[in-house]
Amino acid sequence: MEAVATLVNIAALDRPEDDISALPSILAATVGRNIEDIYRGNGKGILKDVELLRQITEASRGAISAFVDRSTNNKGQVVDTSDKLTSLLGFGLNEPWIQYLSDTQFYRADREKLRVLFGFLGECLKLIVANNEVGSLKQALEGKYVEPGPGGDPIRNPKVLPTGKNIHALDPQAIPTVAALQSAKIVVERLLERQKADNGGKYPETVALVLWGTDNIKTYGESLAQVMWMIGVRPVADGLGRVNKVEPVSLEELGRPRVDVVVNCSGVFRDLFINQMNLLDRAVKMVAELDEPEDQNFVRKHALEQAKTLGVDVREAATRVFSNASGSYSSNINLAVENSSWNDEKQLQDMYLSRKSFAFDSDAPGAGMMEKRQVFEMALSTADATFQNLDSSEISLTDVSHYFDSDPTNLVQNLRKDGKKPSAYIADTTTANAQVRTLSETVRLDARTKLLNPKWYEGMLSTGYEGVREIEKRLTNTVGWSATSGQVDNWVYEEANTTFIKDEEMLNRLMNTNPNSFRKLLQTFLEANGRGY
Ligand code: BEZ
Ligand code: MG
Fold first, then answer.
1. Under a CB-based contact definition with an 8 Å cutoff, are residues 447 and 482 in contact?
2. Which ranges of 388-453 would DSSP assign to H, the alpha helix?
3. How far apart are the CA of 395 and the centre of ligand 2, in A?
4. Domain regions of the chain by residue span
5. Which atom of ligand 1 is nearest the CA belonging to 266?
6. What positions does the domain CobN/magnesium chelatase occupy (predicted)?
């Protein structure tokens, strides 16, 4: 039955390259609606759309459950889907999804589109239940051939399944893809709308954001494309599909000002995608040199101001693509927080500035990463918003220490002349209906669904020793967010304290299962309290 949830998510994406329509789009069309409009209506809290989306989701789940039921035997094992599928596809009315939908308001759903979609889902189902990991591991240990295949997010690209392959990434020159740009536009427009709504209708002049290597592999360059769309350029592929050029999108087409960016590339991104750093740097410089009014082109506005202050030309001032020095990774804020080896937030911010201020310069080919801290600080000081992506349901904000490690929210506040705290946003593109939430909303959601959710912590505790460590790690990562952004509500710590410390039975369980992690958990509570979080 777990396969149903995965299939529902897989079915929610349009796959125009294979002529496959998303199930929610097919269902929405039967009631004369466009699914993107329904998603948008949901975002705005329009009750009619919230209800319709609930019905669409329920019908998707029902139709897919009916299909999975018919493809499995009475022990719940998948029987040979290829035979089953051929027979299922043979009889119009007998198709289980049609039978299910006939009792719903979506009974008129396009049969042909459904047939194509469920043919594809049948292939996916076979891949989802395949179990090759131990087999492949044995093959590898015996020095035998292991079949290679792409890695990535199984929802966006089910062909990464089955697991147990010798996985490879992608051609680094092939991103961003057309589909990635399409998704990026939606996220950027939602981010800008949200910022406008919360800030008296004003666009942010600058967004400080993060590019990860693994994310861009999994999404075929969605976050890379987000940067391009913010500044208003479009990637251009050559005849072999390599993206090595950008062209400006006209202000008319963009329908808004070009938003300036400060791009913080992870060390992994720098290692994998140096060509794309080059491309972005050229894009930013090109935009800074466009002859456009400053209130329509914030890249140009800031670059002109910075050029004047620094006594350099506009191209040099238009430096926005930063990372670590060659061979170095991370701001190390995560290590400082994990080891409690820091005095105050300022110290963490200094680490960020000294480690992350290395710029790539497309006008100095071969020069490598060069320290440009002054421009970095100046660019960050114009940021009205900070932004990161959550791209797959595998990892969220407090699962790992690397998200807060890249977060410059409090740093930007300190650098800004007016001392104003920037808005902080997180995009959730783990499902078809991409969401942009504030960082504090996302931290809340993470706390509710994991740290404070009995299903999560009991699941962890059922694994024993390691489970206690996972709970402790999550609390430490939460402290990390307090330290870099101040966006964690008090009640998160208070409820965690009630759950894990005040409850004596729980306290004893933790202490007996893993005394080391329990001690660290206590220390972390005391530290959070001591630091005023
Ligand atoms: C990255 O893919 O860029 C990345 C991976 C692990 C930690 C931080 C960044
Ligand atoms: Mg991620």
1. no
2. 402-405, 409-415, 439-446
3. 6
4. 2-129, 178-444, 450-531
5. 3
6. 3-533
- In tens, the pLDDT along 23-52 reads 999 999 999 999 999 999 998 899 999 999
153, 175, 212, 270, best to mutate for ligand 1 pocket (most atoms within 8 Å of CB): 212
Query: The pTM is what?
Result: 0.88
Q: Which residue has the tokens 């329904």?
A: 38
Phi and psi of 386, rounded to 5°?
-115, 155
Atom 8 in ligand 1: residue holding the nearest Cα: 402
Contact 115, 63 (CB under 8 A): no
What token pair was written down for 53? 């989306």
**Probe ligand 1: pick from 268, 389, 394, max atoms within 8 Å of CB?**
268
Ligand 1 is surrounded, with C-beta below 6 A, by 212-214, 266, 268-269, 402
Which residue among 263, 266, 324 has the greatest number of ligand 1 atoms within 8 angstroms of its CB, and so is best to mutate?
A: 266
Report whether 388 contacts 209 (CB < 8 A): yes
**Quick one: residue 195, left, alpha or beta (phi over 0 = left, psi -120 to 50 = alpha)?**
alpha
pLDDT digits (tens, 9 = 90+) for 467-519: 999 999 999 999 999 999 999 999 999 999 999 999 999 999 999 999 999 99
> Which numbered ligand comes closest to the C-alpha of 224?
1
Q: Tell me the backbone φ, ψ of residue 425, rounded to 5 degrees.
A: -125, 150
